[in-house]
Design goal:
Elements lengths: L1 H18 L11 E8 L10 E4 L5 E3 L5 E6 L5 E5 L6 E4 L6 E4 L4 H6 L1 E4 L2 E4 L7 E4 L1 H5 L6 H4 L7 E4 L11 E4 L11 E4 L2 E2 L10 E7 L2 H4 L10 E6 L5 E16 L8 H14 L8 H9 L11 H5 L3 E14 L3 E13 L15 E14 L4 E17 L3 H10 L25 H6 L2 E19 L8 E20 L7 E4 L6 E3 L12 E22 L2 E16 L5 H4 L2 E14 L3 E12 L8 E12 L11 E15 L12 E3 L4 E4 L4 E4 L2 E4 L8 E14 L4 E18 L16 E21 L4 E18 L20 E3 L2 E4 L3 H6 L2 E2 L9 E3 L7 E2 L5 E3 L7 E11 L2 E11 L2 E3 L19 H5 L30 E3 L2 E12 L2 H6 L2 E17 L18 E12 L1
Parallel strand pairs: 1-7, 13-16, 42-44
Antiparallel strand pairs: 1-4, 2-3, 2-5, 5-6, 8-9, 10-15, 11-12, 13-14, 15-16, 17-18, 17-52, 18-19, 19-20, 20-21, 21-22, 22-23, 23-26, 24-25, 26-27, 27-28, 28-29, 29-30, 30-31, 31-36, 32-35, 33-34, 36-37, 37-38, 38-39, 39-46, 40-45, 41-43, 46-47, 47-50, 48-49, 50-51, 51-52
Helix pairs in contact: 6-7
Length: 1019
């Protein structure tokens, strides 16, 4: 109804305007001003913007640099602007043909700044490796989780989204791939403070930057080895209040829901398995007919668990209202947002409570800047996030596992009396019952973010260019989960009494229980303090800057389950940076971080992490005479960075004792007594990981920076990686959990990432742009403390992290003779139709020593994205593709391994059923069916491995901005209507589940969104 009213209002205004004779294209008799725009070499400039200053008229210079502009008022001014050139303004009272010469705006290019660690830097002087993305690009992806908006959009970023469930759909994010066995996640800083990036709306963001090499991240010391993401929120702009409202509503469609076989196919497959095992069929032809035609749906059911549990379509909405304005003294920015995303679970209308998944998120942000004097500025920022979630009583993993385990003929979705179908085995596993009859869970989270900052320019007191800045942040996070779980009645339908016709049921295998109640709370607080001294000065051709910073932070788990976990986590350190630039040609930079953590042994808590980088802006040299290369810059860096996120456990330098250890029986009454045992053996030398990083980069601008190219080549060696010792033999007497840890691991990572951008406006006013990026990162395990392997190919050294080992399938046995003449397979008795494996070591046996590294890891080694934007007059259109390569997926486990838990127990994927081995299909993809778990077939092999490469039409958008005169007549500055879509098409090798899914047969599906919205900028 709300949408209908908005469109009716718009239609009413258009009708009223027509009735009054208003036309957005009406003109009075204008005066035409004709002219030509040339550059510093007196050559025609194409695509120069020619505008009436403060008005709505405009033109673009053509291929000859000429323009023609109608002007109604001779007191107007005409403004000429072009990227890389100084803007010029002339009076509209000029007569005749005018020639305007634009001069290069070298100062504008040199003054452009980039966001770097703990501050900003002139972009021209940056020697480290960093990448940025515009807010407009992120807004084109309608998603509540920011990690999904950046997928494939930045060089150096590798992401994978494995689930689409509301509240759990965030993508994994890595910068330049994996470099350690443990935590590879980047440090995320929002307004300089570590915070959750998936709680922020894209509309709140001013800048999004990733720091990739040691020069950019060494300043963060023990937190910088995995890369850093810097997000700055919008701040106020001077002038009268400017209000922006953006509303979006999307329809979501589930992609690649699991497809299982029907009841008739399942029953016939059971018979086929029995025949293969030389046994009699379980079902007669008459019974098979009943499974197929549904004539007796309760005794011969055909349950479609996918349709019973999941619906195909749902919806979401994202809304934001922001206000910005201020004066020379105070500036402000405020945004409020509301996001709702509904889930795909079916609901029972008889329930008095909601069992579908959904999230509702309320965002608030207020940034205020106060100039107390010309030299002293205060900043106050407040942010609040309230998120409410609702979910079924069982979790997503349990519901989808039940769909994989329960067959379509096990029992009906519902009995004749409406109760969930059931049996004496897998009691309570009815997938529909788990999704709709097991109660519900609510999650309520609230986050308060507060930041107070001050900057004092000391130039008038001490020396020019010296300033001091301070920052204090206090964040509070609270979450409460209320579980209202419910056990539904489980009984089996037995048919009707032949005399009375009354429905008969077995005794209840489980009685129905009322809604239970359980509550869980998590409450944390964190405080961050930062004091920074900055110096920036130019001396003729020399530019110098320096920065020295002290920071410390404390985080406390207020609801920790133990006294150790309740001890505050504290970090403290110094950071520094010094840069030097000569004549905007040669640049050098030194960074360091000296910091540590209480998590390490006393006396060994601090580390020093330096870096050095240099750059050469070749195009600013006097000898540079290549006109089409407008900018050429070379960069190089080397440094050391740390990672203290080495374990989920704290204080690994301490040894602990378990008082309730191994038990034994004692005395006449055989009383159970517990002994004491070593729980963990401390390592007094435990320390952080250290990464030695190198980077060589190239920045290139062509044709007056219409084309821009950025390429970086990198390598890294990560040492001191914490791992549990693998070379400790069992005879040493250690319990598996007490084997000590050591900083022994070593991993190398190398690769390349790049970006190309093209932006241009034609003489006809057509704007087009193209953006493409590419990331390749390959890691290699150097040391993992593994014991010596019997065969070298079994070693993980020299392989990538997450490398899979599997048997090489060599087809399927087609005859008994082939079985007898092939190497003996030792897993189970082999039959015709079973998988045949290659004998890797040639010993005549197929056993565990015949597994070799196959495929790639689940996280892609290569990601890319490319897309284009075109706009003409009031229309704009954009499309963007993303993709990944060098990744593998295993379609294994329950439902792809039929009858793994026994004949007739597990559901069966249609993918297996349609491509299994039979005498009539000898060239199958999968082995023949068996009566139960077949150890020979159901092991990790190339039979189940698939190429995980994909190309996805990630998003597309078309927008229309209403004519300004029409908007003004409605009291608005501008109105833009748009429609965009996400996950519109995917090309891959898997088909049955999303190519970004985890190994297995899929889970909660990703969704395609078709999103409509409008953005209104009020006067």
């Amino acid at each position: 109804m709300h949408k209908i009213l908005k469109w009716m209002f718009l239609l009413l205004m258009i009708t009223e305007a027509k009735a009054e004779g208003f036309s957005p294209y009406q003109e009075t008799d204008p005066k035409l001003i004709n002219g030509k725009v040339i550059d510093e070499n007196k050559l025609a400039l194409i695509g120069v913007s020619v505008r009436i200053k403060g008005g709505t008229g405009g033109a673009i210079t053509n291929a000859d640099g000429e323009f023609s502009l109608p002007v109604k008022n001779q007191v107007d001014s005409i403004q000429f602007s072009f990227m890389g050139y100084k803007t010029q303004t002339i009076s509209a009272s000029v007569k005749g043909f005018v020639t305007i010469q634009l001069l290069p705006d070298d100062k504008k290019d040199l003054d452009e700044v980039a966001i770097v660690g703990y501050g900003t830097q002139k972009k021209v002087s940056v020697t480290g490796s960093l990448s940025t993305i515009s807010v407009k690009e992120m807004e084109r992806v309608s998603t509540p989780s920011l990690t999904n908006a950046i997928a494939g959009k930045l060089p150096g970023i590798i992401t994978r989204q494995a689930s689409g469930e509301p509240g759990g759909d965030a993508a994994q994010v890595y910068i330049r791939g994996l470099s350690t066995f443990g935590n590879n996640g980047p440090l995320v800083l929002i307004d300089g403070v570590e915070r959750n990036m998936n709680q922020i709306n894209a509309q709140e963001i001013e800048s999004f930057t990733i720091l990739k090499d040691a020069s950019a991240t060494a300043i963060y010391g023990v937190r910088g080895a995995n890369g850093v993401i810097l997000i700055n929120t919008k701040r106020g702009e001077g002038g009268k209040p400017r209000i922006t409202y953006r509303a979006e509503v999307a329809g979501l469609t589930a992609l690649r829901l699991p497809e299982y076989i029907n009841g008739g196919q399942y029953a016939s497959l059971m018979n086929e398995a029995l025949v293969n095992a030389n046994q009699s069929p379980r079902w007669s032809d008459e019974e098979l007919r009943k499974f197929r035609d549904g004539s007796d749906p309760y005794l011969y059911p055909d349950a479609n668990w996918t349709d019973a549990v999941l619906k195909r379509n749902t919806w979401q909405t994202i809304n934001n209202l922001s206000v910005t304005g201020g004066s020379d003294i105070i500036k402000y920015y405020t945004n409020v947002g509301f996001t709702l995303q509904d889930g795909l679970y079916q609901q029972d209308p008889e329930n008095k409570f909601n069992t579908n998944a959904n999230i509702k998120r309320y965002n608030f942000r207020s940034n205020v800047d106060i100039n107390l004097s010309k030299s002293l500025t205060l900043q106050l920022s407040l942010g609040g996030v309230i998120q409410n979630g609702n979910y079924p009583g069982w979790g997503m993993a349990d519901i989808f596992q039940a769909m994989k385990v329960i067959s379509p003929i096990a029992y009906p979705v519902r009995n004749p009396d409406g109760s969930p179908g059931g049996a004496s085995t897998y009691v309570g596993w009815n997938p529909w019952g788990r999704a709709t009859q097991s109660g519900y869970l609510t999650s309520d989270g609230s986050t308060l973010q507060s930041t107070f900052g001050a900057k004092w320019d000391l130039s008038s007191f001490t020396t020019k260019g010296l300033s001091v800045r301070g920052l204090f942040a206090y964040d509070r996070n609270n979450s409460t989960n209320n579980a209202r779980a419910k056990a539904f009645e489980v009984k089996r339908y037995l048919g009707q009494d032949p005399i009375t016709g009354k429905d008969l049921y077995s005794a209840a295998f489980r009685e129905e229980q009322p809604l239970g109640y359980a509550v869980g709370n998590a409450n944390t607080r964190s405080m961050y303090t930062e004091v920074q001294l900055n110096y920036e000065r130019s001396f003729g051709l020399h530019d110098v800057t320096s920065m020295l910073l002290f920071n410390q932070n404390e985080a406390v788990n207020l609801t920790a389950g133990s006294s150790i976990l309740n001890i505050p986590q504290r970090r403290q350190g110094l950071a520094g940076r010094a840069t030097y630039g000569y004549n905007n040609r040669y640049f050098a930079e030194v960074n360091f971080g000296y910091n540590g953590s209480e998590n390490f042994p006393e006396g060994k808590r601090y580390g020093f992490f330096p870096s050095f980088s240099a750059g050469w802006l070749v195009s600013n040299e006097k000898f540079w005479k290549v006109p089409f290369i407008s900018m050429l810059k070379l960069r190089a860096s080397h440094g050391k960075v740390g990672n203290d996120q080495i374990s989920g456990s704290r204080f690994l330098f301490l040894s602990t004792i378990r008082t309730q250890g191994q038990s034994y029986l004692f005395g006449p009454g055989q009383e159970v007594l517990y002994g004491m045992e070593e729980n963990a053996i401390g390592n007094e030398n435990v320390t952080w990981e250290t990464a030695d990083k190198n980077n060589i980069g190239l920045d290139l601008g062509l044709f007056n920076n219409i084309v821009n190219l950025q390429i970086d080549v990198f390598n890294e060696k990560r040492i001191n990686i914490l791992l549990q010792r693998k070379t400790v033999p069992a005879v040493a007497g250690f319990f598996p959990w007490s084997i000590p840890f050591g900083n022994l691991g070593v991993v190398k990572n190398k690769g390349v990432d790049g970006l190309i951008e093209v932006k241009h406006t034609t003489s006809q006013g057509l704007f087009y742009s193209f953006r493409g990026n590419f990331t390749f990162a390959k890691n290699t395990i150097v040391e993992n403390d593994e014991p010596l392997k019997r065969f070298p190919y079994l070693s993980e050294k020299g392989l990538r992290l997450g490398q899979s080992f599997a048997f090489i399938a060599d087809g399927f046995f087609q005859s008994q003779e082939e079985i007898e003449t092939s190497p003996k397979q030792t897993f189970s008795q082999v039959r015709i139709g079973d998988t045949k494996y290659k004998d890797i070591n040639g010993d005549g046996l197929i056993d565990s020593f015949d597994q070799i590294p196959v495929g790639y890891s689940r996280l892609p080694e290569m990601t890319f994205g490319f897309g284009s934007t075109v706009s003409f007059k009031n229309f704009d259109l954009s499309v963007y593709f993303t993709g990944a390569a060098r990744t593998s997926v295993f379609l294994n486990g329950t439902s792809m391994w039929p009858f793994y838990d026994g004949l007739g127990v597990n559901n069966v994927m249609a993918e297996y059923y349609n491509n299994r081995w039979t005498p009539g299909n000898p060239n199958a993809l999968y082995p023949a069916i068996d009566v139960g778990n077949n150890p020979n077939n159901f092991i990790n092999s190339t039979v189940w491995m698939r190429n995980g490469n994909y190309l996805r039409l990630r998003n597309a958008e078309i927008g229309y901005t209403l004519d300004k005169r029409f908007s003004n007549r409605m009291g608005m500055k501008s109105i833009r209507l748009f429609v965009n879509g996400m996950n519109l098409a995917t090309w891959d090798h898997i088909k049955i589940m999303d190519p970004e899914s985890n190994d297995g047969t899929g889970a909660y599906p990703l969704q395609r969104s078709i999103n409509a919205g409008l953005q209104i900028d009020f006067k």
